[in-house]
Design goal:
It is elongated, with a radius of gyration of 28 Å. A hairpin with a 5-residue loop joins strand 3 and strand 4. It is of the alpha+beta class and 161 residues long. A three-stranded antiparallel beta sheet has the order 1-2-5, with no helix packed on it. The protein is built from two helices and six strands, in the order H-H-E-E-E-E-E-E. The mean pLDDT is 85.
Length: 161
């Protein structure tokens, strides 16, 4: 009888120690996965497609005009910042798509947000030679540290028809 009691006392402690080892193992694996994901998030994100040599040569034919930054209130009582303006194709080639990079800064001149946006789309007819089209870029969540000034707008990609 005494042996049966001793055996039953040993099993619960073994089960407890096995469970503790399993829990510690899960915690260690979770922490390792978290640290790995943090490491990946801190790695520099790819810049995306860059301007080809052909597109770089054509940039001089694209003109942004009447560019303004406005703040409006949405239906949800949130402030939406939008950049509106026009883009003109003063060259001799039809464009299927034009994307720009909007770079927002803080008061100290540090970049706080880079946002890429397509301002000419093929589904809206592209941009023919001599044509001017309006664009609108809404931003509903700018960082608090943004300096509230006009972002730098840079042509990031041109796709030709």
């Amino acid at each position: 009888m005494r042996r049966a009691t001793e055996a039953s006392n040993r099993n619960p402690s073994r089960r407890l120690s096995n469970a503790a080892v399993a829990i510690v193992g899960v915690i260690v694996l979770g922490a390792a996965a978290f640290l790995y994901l943090e490491y990946l998030a801190r790695q520099q994100k790819p810049a995306g497609p860059v301007l080809t040599a052909e597109a770089k040569a054509y940039v001089k034919h694209l003109k942004l005009s009447e560019v303004q930054m406005k703040a409006t209130e949405s239906y949800m009582k949130q402030t939406v910042v939008e950049i509106v303006g026009k883009i003109s194709n003063q060259g001799d080639r039809a464009l299927r798509s034009v994307s720009i990079q909007c770079v927002f800064y803080d008061p100290y001149g540090q970049v706080v947000l880079r946002e890429r946006a397509e301002i000419v789309r093929s589904r809206l007819g592209g941009l023919k030679p001599g044509e001017t089209k309006a664009f609108r870029l809404p931003f509903d969540s700018l960082p608090q540290s943004c300096n509230q000034g006009m972002p730098q707008l840079v042509i990031a990609q041109i796709l030709f028809d």
